[in-house]
TrEMBL record:
UniProt membrane topology term: Multi-pass membrane protein
Keywords: Cell membrane, Membrane, Transmembrane, Transmembrane helix
Presence of keyword Disulfide bond: no
Biological classification of the source: Bacteria, Bacillati, Actinomycetota, Coriobacteriia, Eggerthellales
Domain of life: Bacteria
UniProt subcellular location: Cell membrane
UniProt cross-references to InterPro entries, sorted A to Z: Poly_Biosynth_Transport (IPR050833), Polysacc_synth (IPR002797)
Protein's recorded name: Oligosaccharide flippase family protein
Annotated TM spans: 12-31, 43-64, 85-108, 114-135, 147-167, 173-191, 221-239, 251-276, 297-318, 324-350, 357-375, 381-399
PANTHER family noted in UniProt: O-ANTIGEN TRANSPORTER-RELATED, PST FAMILY PREDICTED COLANIC ACID TRANSPORTER
Amino acid sequence: MNYRSILSNFSVALGAQGLSTLVGLLTSLIVPKLLGIDEFGYWQLFIFYTTYLALFTLGLNDGVYLTEGGKRRSETCKKQLASQFWVECSYQCVFAALIVAVALSGAFGEDRSFVLLMTALYLLLNNASNFFGYLFQAMNESKLYSVSTMINCTAFLAPLLVMLAVGDSDFRHYIFFYTIARFASLGFSVWKGRDFLQAGVVDVQTALSLCWSSMKAGSKLLLSTTAGTLILGVARFMVDANWGIEEFSIVSLAVSITSFVMTLVSQASMVLFPALRQADRDEAVGFYVAARNGLDVLLPLTYILYAPLVTVLTWWLPQYEASFALFALLMPLCVFNSKMGVVGNTFLWVLRKEGKLLAINVVTLCVSALFSVVGTFCFHSIEIIFGGAVAAVIGRCVYTERFIENEFGVCERGSIGGAIAVTICFVIASIVLPLWMAWALMVAVCSVYGLLNLRRLKHVLGFLRS
């Protein structure tokens, strides 16, 4: 396995994700300062809808990612891939037309109708761009995908800074330029993949057969990914349906802040997969143990950042103070969702256990949905809704780790039990103690935890150096 290639790809991905994080920080921290709570809610509603647009590909992009994973560009059949791309574009137009019809039906208010119309347009741009993005990553050309991400962020960042400078408070303008930015990244992807489009196409029957094969291969991965995002998504749906757009806005701010870390780590899993598909079993096992141990030690230390972050956010956005109280419940997601992204999803893909990943995510989703129903209709408590979602995510991470260890025959257990103990201390301290007293306690707890796991961290550093 080419570790230099992995680090090179990941360094570029880190740069792209850093730019994406900058845009995310601006939209999460500056935009709500300008927009009213309702206006910010509609902006977040659009972002929320775009999260699930991959469903409309019916698994084709994911299937291409799995079947082409580990191949070089010269080893792919370009004519077949181009045919699948054009078929996908065709049925995406049908789905977009249906969303437009719903938007214009008169069943929604003017603002929600606008959000739906722009979602339909974004659907076409996003899924076409992701076809090439997944293909680039499958061929271990992750740098191209990262550059397209940079272009997407830059194309949105420029008008965003102008709107922030002039104090633009119309959420429609933000949605419009966000969509235009996706068009720019699609243009780059099409240009870099033009050799595929220039290769011609196969006959219609063969193209449909290829698409069906890709959908069968990718549907489990798509559904498992969607189920994973719905673990929190179903909670946000319930808040929007039962508390309204204002409460949805407040909840979405807390969710978007915790999403920064999870998005960064999910990029790592996309970079690792094609390289690990080319590795032998011993290399894969060694990499798994190193990644597991490193994340076990480092991720829980992020709890120390909670108090300083909340202090700054409360000063900057006092009208969202209720959102930051919920933030304490969501912080564990940065630990356990991130770990699931690197050592869970990645190695289940490497083992070709997409069905197992789907089952794990569906069960987790059902548990989260149960808490959402109970929290909404029995207790009318947003805290119970999201607390249940976090508990489900922790359970998913523990089970997945044990499953992979058994598949690989790894006898040495990780320290996920210690990470759970630190998490329990953090949640209880954040609820019971004043903010900075809780912070002092967590500094002590994390220091002890780090010292107890120092040997594991040295092992990881030694592995990376080798």
